[in-house]
Recover the amino acids of this structure.
């Protein structure tokens, strides 16, 4: 059976992706950085869907760990680069170390996983890669310069990789998420959340499951590559 690898699968969008693919008949491998209990819960959910589950602790910033992760997934046919981190900070208060940390997870991690997966996909004659980006990667966000820039870089990487890999049958797409009900956005006050949602025509947050459905759609749609699929409630039209 074909397998998908989801990075950052212990909670939120990553867990929702794992479960969506499991319900669709995929075996699912996922990695997590530190949340052991969350990883166990994700694994139980995958197995409850009747799918095979592989959980690997991995820091996507680490080249050797990423290479070992890819090697640990038999039947790899799809990759969802979801692992991410955020930083809420004014530019003048952002250290170089913080800037680099955000890029290392959000952009370099996706590059390392993609680079390691490509030879596997070439051997099997094709594959699918879905990168999870953000609305802020398209428009930028005040006090989130590092996050916005890293997600914009991920969109650029998606398009370049799609052009390069398409002749080999490897499709590369991106989901650009609006505000989603996850732990990453838990720092928002109710007033901040309400102010943001005023600019969302559908008037609500997205759910991790809605992002997961988009990732599954892009994986299954064999004539789509290089696309940035906006799942944002109409926040950017």
């Amino acid at each position: 059976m074909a397998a998908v690898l989801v990075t950052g699968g212990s909670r939120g969008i990553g867990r929702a992706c794992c479960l969506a693919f499991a319900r669709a008949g995929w075996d699912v491998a996922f990695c997590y950085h530190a949340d052991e209990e969350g990883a166990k819960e994700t694994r139980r959910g995958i197995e409850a869907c009747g799918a095979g589950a592989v959980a690997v602790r991995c820091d996507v910033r680490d080249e050797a760990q990423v290479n070992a992760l890819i090697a640990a997934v038999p039947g790899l046919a799809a990759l969802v680069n979801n692992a991410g981190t955020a930083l809420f900070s004014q530019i003048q208060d952002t250290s170089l170390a913080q800037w680099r940390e955000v890029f290392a997870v959000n952009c370099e991690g996706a590059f390392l996983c993609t680079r390691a997966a490509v030879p596997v996909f070439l051997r099997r004659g094709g594959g699918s890669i879905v990168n999870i980006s953000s609305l802020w990667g398209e428009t930028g966000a005040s006090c989130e310069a590092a996050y916005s820039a890293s997600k914009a870089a991920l969109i650029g990487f998606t398009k370049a990789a799609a052009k390069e890999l398409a002749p080999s049958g490897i499709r590369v797409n991106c989901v650009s998420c609006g505000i989603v009900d996850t732990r990453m956005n838990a720092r928002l006050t109710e007033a901040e959340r309400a102010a943001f949602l005023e600019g969302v025509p559908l008037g609500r947050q997205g759910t991790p499951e809605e992002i997961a459905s988009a990732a599954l759609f892009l994986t299954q749609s064999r004539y789509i590559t290089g696309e940035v699929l906006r799942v944002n409630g109409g926040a950017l039209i």
About this structure: The domain at 3-231 is CATH 3.40.50.720 (Rossmann fold). Strands lie at 3-6, 27-32, 53-57, 76-81, 127-134, 170-177, 228-231. The chain has one domain: 3-231.
